[in-house]
Amino acid sequence: MSLTNNHHFKDRVVVITGAGGVLCAYFAKEIAKTGAKVALLDINVEAVQDYADEINQAGYLAKAYQTNVLDLDSLQAARTQIARDFGLCDILINGAGGNSPKATTDNEFHELDLPNTTKSFFSLDKSGIEFVFNLNYLGTLLPTQVFAQDMMGKKGASIINISSMNAYTPLTKIPAYSGAKAAISNFTQWLAVYFSRVGIRCNAIAPGFLVSHQNRSLLFDDNDNPTPRAEKILTNTPMRRFGEANELIGGILFLMDEAYSSFINGVVLPIDGGFSAYSGV
Length: 281
Ligand code: NAD
Hints:
By secondary structure, the chain is an alpha/beta fold.
C-alpha cells in the first residue's frame, strides 16, 4: 500500500523548490498522488518540466516554473503565475540546496607538512562559501518571505525545510555546507515561533546518508565496494546501511499533514538510521 493513501491534500497547492533535483522530484511525484496541485520550482526548467509532464501523464496535477530561489523578482513571478494556475500556496517545501567544490577542503585534518597542492581551509574560495550560504540559507528564507504571505490564516498551512546531519555535528571537509544547514535548523525554529500565531507550522527533516546517482561514485568503487568515506559513514550509522529517498517521504507527509502533526512545530526530524544518536562508542 502506498503511504500517500493516508494523506488527503486534494486541491491543496504545494510549492516545492529544487524540484528538479533527486529528492524533491521524488517528493513532488509522491505528493501529487495525494490529490495536491504541485508547483515544481527549479532554476533548471528542463528538469522540472520533465517531472511535471511525468506527473500529469500519471493522471495527477503539476506544473513547472523556472525560478531562482535567490532572486525575489523570479520568486514573485512564480507566485503570481502559480496563483493564476492553481491558487494560493498552502504548503511550501524549501528543497533547493547543496554544496560546492569551491567550499570543500581536500583534507580532513590540517597538518604541518601538507603539500602545497592540497586545497586546505586556507585556500577555500570566498565566492564558494558565499554560494553555499546563499543557496541554502537565503534560498530558504526568500521563498518563505514570498510564499508565506499567501499561507497566513489558511487551515493546514505548513513549511518544510531540508536540514542535514551536518547541522548537528559538522562533517569534515565541508564547513560552509555544515554551517548553512545548521542555520537552516535554527531558522526552522525561528519561523515556527514567528508564524505560530498566524497558523503556519514550520518543521524540517534532516536526512542521513543516502545513495543517489550524484554521490554513488564517491561512496562505491568500480567493483561496488564501499570507499573509505562510505565505510566511515556505515560504521557511524547504527543501522549499518544507507537510506533511500523513499524513506524520507513518510516524514515529509507526516510533517505536512495537520491530521498527523497539528501540534508539531519547530522540530527537525532526523531520518538517518540512528547516525545522529550515535557517539561512535
Ligand atoms: P539536488 O542537487 O539533486 O537538487 C537540487 C536542485 O536545486 C537542483 O535541481 C538544482 O537545479 C536546484 N537549484 C540549485 N540552485 C537553485 C536556485 N538558485 N534556484 C532554484 N533551484 C536551484 O539535491 P538533492 O540531493 O535532491 O537535495 C535536496 C535538498 O536536500 C538540498 O537542500 C540538500 O542540501 C538536502 N540534503 C540532501 C541529502 C542527500 O543525501 N541527497 C542529504 C541531506 C540533505
